[in-house]
Specification:
Number of helices: 20
Number of strands: 0
Strand content: under 5%
Helix content: over 70%
Structural class: mainly alpha
Largest sheet: none
Mean pLDDT: 90
Order of helices and strands: HHHHHHHHHHHHHHHHHHHH
């Protein structure tokens, strides 16, 4: 007991002070940014998120028949709007979540690598412009990034201490995260195998997987009662259809632009509006059939789309943005991505620890490639790019320090 108290005291004196300063700094940066934003400065996607939340409060329904958004972020907004619609309240809560994410990333990087790598990762994330910017919009990125980091921390903790309590908690958090964006669910499936591999007990993987599904199940039941068919989280055939056709190839051919993309892109075939007038189940059936037929009949075009989307997903800077935004990106993500690649190679001896994050990069990328891709979709996993980049930075620092001291 005395040893435990001594360890806690040591933590509070060192790491505790660092984390407190980091949280205050991250919060201050994000607060100064959002407090100066116009409350009307909300993206079209943000308006749609708010519409779905408001429909729950005002009309007792979940958006309209064609609302495809999963419930995680919608319920976050609904809980806020119950006390009155306030964009500022959303932004301020996202300031807190964004700042907490910096702290969580510190613990993840510390567990995988070391305390110095954890500190470097947390500081870099604190100033990361993409995540700062998204605290000011009513988009799920800040909320989603926080939940992913929390899920990964619980998964790693469960691998270290595979108690039933830890595994249940990890599963429930993974489920809630999946209800925010279903694209993360395949990674959690792989995480179950990772837990099995790390702990040597399939029971642990089973507990993690079951409680992930337990968290998702109320929404799945709602979908069955409402749609009269099994839909685990959300229906995506409409998105798959609009992302895989001859018209969709036009978007991928657009070159560099020095201005942000227009508020609305319309690359769906003209008959899309006609399908939207059909009953939802019938429309989804058509979307599925036509999307799969196009992919099957046009394998060369589909592979071309996949290659282009891979490039767009891992761009060092936005394709459509003001020049100053591209410069800012090049000095952050433009550096972190190459450093991340180097860090993965340098840490190959630690593959047992790093494999979870490497699998995240692979699975998360693969899940997005069949659909229209924008750089924003990658941002929630940029924190783990920063972790590997921080490892590279730490190694370079140690080499320089050794070289300098050896010459003295």
């Amino acid at each position: 007991m005395l040893n435990l108290l001594n360890k806690n005291t040591e933590f509070l004196k060192s790491d505790g002070k660092f984390l407190l300063i980091l949280f205050i700094l991250a919060s201050l940066i994000r607060f100064v940014y959002v407090i100066n934003l116009d409350t009307a400065a909300i993206s079209p996607d943000g308006q749609d998120w708010m519409y779905t939340a408001e429909s729950i409060i005002n009309e007792g329904r979940y958006g309209n028949e064609y609302t495809w958004r999963p419930p995680g972020y919608v319920m976050f907004l609904t809980a806020i709007f119950l006390f009155g619609k306030s964009i500022l309240a959303v932004r301020l809560l996202q300031v807190i979540l964004g700042s907490l994410t910096c702290l969580i990333i510190y613990f993840i990087a510390k567990k995988i690598f070391s305390n110095p790598v954890g500190r470097i990762s947390a500081v870099l994330l604190c100033f990361y412009p993409y995540l700062i910017a998204y605290t000011g919009d009513v988009l799920c990125e800040t909320f989603y990034t926080f939940l992913i980091s929390l899920s990964i921390l619980f998964i790693i903790t469960s691998a270290e201490k595979p108690t039933t309590k830890n595994l249940i908690l990890a599963g429930l958090v993974c489920g809630i995260t999946s209800l925010t964006k279903a694209t993360i669910l395949p990674f959690f499936f792989i995480a179950c195998f990772w837990i099995w591999w790390r702990t040597k007990h399939i029971k642990n993987a089973f507990i993690l997987g079951i409680f992930t599904l337990v968290a998702i199940s109320p929404w799945t039941l709602r979908n069955y009662l409402y749609m009269k068919k099994f839909i685990l989280i959300s229906h995506g055939y409409g998105t798959l259809w609009t992302s895989n056709n001859d018209e969709a190839m036009i978007l991928e051919k657009i070159g560099e632009k020095d201005r942000p993309a227009p508020d609305k892109w319309n690359w769906a075939p003209d008959r899309f509006s006609k399908y939207l007038k059909l009953p939802r189940a019938e429309a989804e059936k058509i979307f599925k059939q036509e999307a799969t037929e196009w992919i099957k009949n046009n394998p060369d075009k589909f592979m071309w789309l996949v290659k282009r989307r891979f490039i767009h997903f891992w761009r060092l800077y936005p394709m459509m943005a003001y020049k100053w935004q591209k410069i800012a990106a090049m000095f952050t993500s433009g550096l972190y991505i190459p450093l991340c690649f180097i860090g993965i190679i340098l840490s190959i001896k630690n593959f047992r620890e790093t494999s979870l994050l490497i699998s995240l990069f692979i699975i998360y990328t693969m899940v997005h490639l069949p659909f229209a891709v924008v750089l924003r979709y990658r941002v929630p996993i940029d924190a783990y790019i920063i972790i590997f980049a921080s490892y590279t930075i730490h190694i370079i620092w140690l080499k320089l320090k050794y070289y300098t001291s050896s010459r003295v």
